[in-house]
Amino acid sequence: MKQIDAIIAWTPARWAELKPDTAGQVVVLPAPDTAGEAKRYMMRAGASSSAMAALSEEARISRLFIDFQTLVVRDGIDPQAAHRAFLAIDEYRFRIAPDTEGAEFEDPPEED
User: Fold this and answer.
1) How far is Cα 79 from Cα 61, in angstroms, rounded to an integer?
2) Whole-prediction pTM value?
3) Does residue 112 register a pLDDT over 70?
4) How far apart are CA 22 and CA 15, in angstroms?
5) Taking Cα atoms as reference points, which of 58, 37, 32, 62 lies closest to residue 47?
6) How far apart are CA 105 and CA 97, in angstroms?
7) Which of 40, 90, 38 is nearest to 64 (CA)?
8) Burial code of 72-104, b = ≥16 C-beta within 10 A, e = fewer?
């Protein structure tokens, strides 16, 4: 799914007492979240932010990787769990190192 249509929801690991069911977890959901799944988590980013649509493509992609860093470093989400969740976002898969599990090429290279 495109980043502009993806809701990133997570609960910091340190908030286990507040949200024990989702503490330390992250999901990427399609917007709109008609089932209200994102409400199970304490934090949201991505399509849930009204500012996202106003950003340039480059700024949105920067925001995506800043969000990844924030939930891993600040909020204690396991990096591999975050990586697996973020693979649902096209712009993430197309911009991570090509030899990383789950990476894709936006425009696959031509083979000889």
Assistant:
1) 18
2) 0.91
3) no
4) 9
5) 32
6) 10
7) 90
8) beebbbeeebbbebbbbbbbbbeebeeeeeeee
105 within 8 A of 94, measured Cβ to Cβ: yes
Nearest to 23 by CA among 31, 15, 35: 15
Place of tokens 């204690």: 76
Burial 12-41 (b: 16+ CB within 10 A, else e): beebeeebeebbbbbbbbebeeeeeebeeb
Banded pLDDT at 58 (limits 50, 70, 90): very high
Q: What is the 3-state secondary structure (H, E, C) of the chain?
A: CCHHHEEEEEECHHHCCCCCCCECCEEEEECCCCCCHHHHCCEEEECCCCCHHHCCHHHHHHHHHHHHHHHHHHCCCCHHHHHHHHCCCHHHHHHCCCCCCCCCCCCCCCCC
Compute the mean pLDDT over every residue in the chain, rounded to the nearest whole number.
93
Euclidean distance between CA atoms 1 and 17, whole angstroms: 32
